[in-house]
Design goal:
The chain has about 375 residues and is of the alpha/beta class. The chain folds into 2 domains: about 10-200, P-loop containing nucleotide triphosphate hydrolases (Rossmann fold); about 210-375, Rossmann fold (3-Layer(aba) Sandwich), CATH 3.40.50. It has helices at about 10-15, 25-45, 50-55, 75-85, 95-110, 120-125, 140-160, 185-195, 210, 225-235, 275-280, 285-295, 310-325, 350-360, 365, 375-380, and strands at about 65, 90-95, 130-135, 160-165, 195-200, 215-220, 250-255, 260, 265, 270-275, 295-300, 330-335. The strands form 3 sheets. A 5-stranded parallel β-sheet has the order 2-3-4-1-5. It has a 5-stranded mixed β-sheet with strand order 6-12-11-10-9. β7 (about 250-255) and β8 (about 260) form a beta hairpin. α13 packs across α14 (about 350-360). The longest helix has 19 residues, at about 25-45. The model is unreliable at about 45-50 and about 375-380 (pLDDT under 50). InterPro entries: ATPase_AFG1-like, P-loop_NTPase. This is ATPase. One of its GO terms (molecular function) is ATP hydrolysis activity.
């Protein structure tokens, strides 16, 4: 994207002119908002014109919360903004990595100072930073939810840090149905008060280009199939394959009283084993929580299902129903093709609908659909 001192909007329009992007009104509106923020921040930089003319403190610039479905260009716009912004006091970080840093800083603060660690942590994280830019803000566990309201109030209101973030969800849907969510609600209020909420739900899913040459159902299982779904994960998340051992896990709230462990969870992509999803005692609430939280699910190790596995087959049917109804992209390694996965046993006749859905979920038309149910997509 280069390092020339052009504005965010000018860089975006150059990509359109060069046909690297297709025109998208939502994207252009977001680019224009980020461009305005860039100009405001650059005008207010220490030692700049405004600080020379006025001795009083310059008001903090209003932040931006960009949200939308997968592949709508949120990260691309963040790249343009951060690269174009001509101030030194800026930081770009993935939200998951940032929260890991927060927890470590809190442990250090408690050990060294005792008492409430939040002010000390906010002071440390804001040192030399006027703009914090986050990719993929998501809240999947109660520990993060309990911290965020107080921490971000300190960063924004006390430390004058401008927050720019992307998310797959609108603010009101963050940590939806999570444990002790009432403690998280002030954070949602803070977003609405201190950040401009900008939606990106245009017609083009740019991330599809990254997986366009990859199949979604791999049978039989084996090293080749595993390598393919592994490639899908790294293409969709931009995570370094050489650092595969450090792919983050997640904790997903199921209703208001319990949660489930997600072995690999990053940027709206989750990886599960069939054993974890369908051989353990799970039901519709678990599968609906997954379908709402993740735009892409990778399931590894789907075995041949026979009469002795009727319970597993029934759970699998419920799982696929939830994923299908929420337009979740599914990638899988399996013992056989869908048509021969469960040919006999209780419910094998009903399983034919699941076979039909699995085949439809492999189609280009399904893959192009936005994440969410019909009502959710229409409301976006």
């Amino acid at each position: 994207m280069g390092t020339s001192n052009t504005s965010t909007l000018a860089r975006y329009e150059k990509l359109i002119a060069n046909k690297e992007l297709r025109a998208d009104p939502d994207q252009r509106r977001a680019a224009a908002r980020l461009d305005a923020l860039q100009k405001e921040l650059e005008a207010e930089r220490p030692g700049g014109l405004l600080s020379q003319l006025f001795s009083r403190k310059t008001p903090r610039a209003q932040g931006v919360y960009m949200w939308g479905g997968v592949g709508r260009g949120k990260s691309m716009l963040m790249d343009l903004f951060h690269d174009a912004l001509r101030i030194k006091e800026k930081r770009r970080v993935h939200f998951h990595a940032f929260m890991q840093e927060v927890h470590e800083a809190m442990r250090e603060a408690r050990k060294n100072h005792g008492g409430d660690p939040i002010p000390a942590v906010a002071a440390k994280l804001s040192d030399g930073v006027r703009v914090l830019a986050f990719d993929e803000m998501v809240v999947n566990n109660s520990a993060d939810a309990m911290i965020m309201s107080r921490l971000f109030t300190q960063l924004i209101m006390e430390r004058d840090v401008t927050i720019v973030t992307t998310s797959n969800r609108p603010p009101d849907d963050l940590y939806k149905d999570g444990l002790n969510r009432e403690h998280f609600l002030p954070f949602i209020d803070l977003i609405h008060a201190q950040l401009d909420v900008v939606s990106l739900n245009g017609p083009t899913d740019y991330r599809l280009d990254r997986i366009g040459d990859l199949e979604s159902w791999y049978a039989p299982m084996g090293d080749e199939a595993t390598a393919k779904v592994r490639e899908v994960f790294f293409r969709l998340t931009d995570f370094d394959p050489d650092d595969a051992a450090n792919v983050p896990s997640g904790e997903l709230a199921v209703g208001s009283k319990r949660s489930m462990y997600v072995p690999k969870s990053l940027k709206g992509v989750a990886v599960f084993s069939f054993k974890r999803l369908c051989e353990e005692a799970r039901g519709a609430p678990d599968y609906l929580a997954i379908a709402r939280a993740y735009h892409t699910v990778i399931i590894v190790g789907i075995p041949q299902l026979g009469p002795e596995k009727r319970n597993e087959a029934a759970r699998f049917v419920t799982l696929i129903d939830a994923l299908y109804e929420h337009r979740v992209k599914l990638f899988a390694t399996a013992a056989s093709e869908p048509e021969t996965l469960y040919e006999s046993g209780d419910g094998s006749f009903e399983f034919e609908r699941t076979v039909s859905r699995l085949n439809e979920m492999q189609s280009d038309e399904y893959m192009a659909l936005g994440h969410g149910t019909d009502s959710q997509v229409q409301s976006n």
